[in-house]
Amino acid sequence: MLRAHTSSTVVELGELFAAAGHELALVGGPVRDVFLGGKSVDLDLTTDAVPERVLEITRKWADKTWTVGIEFGTIGLRKRDEIFEITTYRSEAYDHSSRKPEVRYGTSLIADLERRDFTINAMAARLPTFELVDPFGGLEALREKVIRTPGRPEDSFSDDPLRILRAARFAARLGFTVNADVQRAMGEMASRLSIVSTERITDELSKLMLTLTPETGLDLMVRTGVAQVVLPELPALRMEVDEHHRHKDVYTHSLIVLRQAIDLEPSYGLGPDLVLRLAAILHDIGKPRTRTLLPGGKVAFHHHEVVGAKMTRKRLTELRFPKDVIDQVSKLVELHLRFHGYGDGEWTDSAVRRYVRDAGPLLTRLHALTRADCTTRNARKAARLAATYDALEARIEVLREQEELDKIRPDLDGQEIMQVLGLKPGPLVGKAWNYLLEVRLEQGSIGKERATQELLRWASAEGLTPASGDGAGEASVSDPSAGDGRDDSQ
Fold first, then answer.
1. Mean pLDDT, all residues of the chain
2. Using an 8 Å Cβ cutoff, are 484 and 431 in contact?
3. What separation, in Å, do the N-terminal and C-terminal C-alpha atoms of the chain show?
4. What predicted TM-score, i.e. pTM, was given to this entire model?
5. How far apart are alpha carbons 451 and 456 in whole angstroms?
């Protein structure tokens, strides 16, 4: 079975190592995925040969080799269009203060498998014979759809605490349950994640968010207490009753929104989309801080989208997500209630323009997030909201064709504003441009002649006296407190 799912190149490599007197075996993902009915894109192998010896054996055979991971015992190589990573049998562990594992080479395949994270990844196929090596019940775990560790979970998580997050990721990716002992150890050892670099934690969290069912992995993290260390804003949602959506708590609502956002990705040509998914799970994290009790036992969360956007930016910055991801997720959290602010009535053209302008390149994701945020069990209300949003999207498309909504700008550009008002580059030009942008949003395109009249009316109200001539001079300000607060005539 394993041979049938493997290329002849793998057999060649196995024969090469055997001829050199060394062991070589496919290990982990490539073996696991065959039994799951798929094919792994990663070809990970393990050997008793030390890295320098691996380089000697493969130097003439490989088309290219690289040594980026040699300090961890890994050599990378390419043969034709296949990429391999060969790692020497090893035993690595973190001490209680270091963020880097201490790597020790071993000589036994069984011992190497014992130090791996989970039994489903602790299977190997000896090459070139493809003899299956499964000393810790990986196949049984696959049949039972359960995540276990080869030895005590405490030992596995002590060796590499990042495996605590990997347990959640594999559960989400494969739809497996996590053994009770493993769950208990996850909670008891969650604090050990503090010795793992932020970059590794964020990489693992990102991989989790891009699985088929990230909500199950996140829920596991919350239930075991791991989220309290990595993403504390998430468990904080459990105690907040969300009266708007009639769910038992905001936490459950957020998991549902995440699921619905993922389900909507194909409809909007997205996915798997990290930005949308992060925004979905974080969109209500401002509610605990803005919770206010109202008369009659009701609860309000005024401006929770603004507070939540700031909290999102702070958390994602601490996790060292890329700046563009931070900006985009924070903006979506800030905008996620914008649709509801316009009510159920027909939107004005001005409101549509502002909605598109404020969303910018995030408009498609905002569509998906807004629709996903409807989790009401009231079928009539859900249908009404969906119909209202259908109408909004249709209006956007109509206006987009009429007005090039994606390129909304004033009818006069900066040069023309300076010409009309006799200004030199400076803050007043920006202020005038913003005024004309507001006119454009309210009225649509009005043409240069009317825009000039609007600009002159604005200038008069601001106490500006446009200079005569070709615009080389400067407008004077009759009141030093007007405009940008300085007397441009001096």
1. 87
2. yes
3. 86
4. 0.80
5. 9
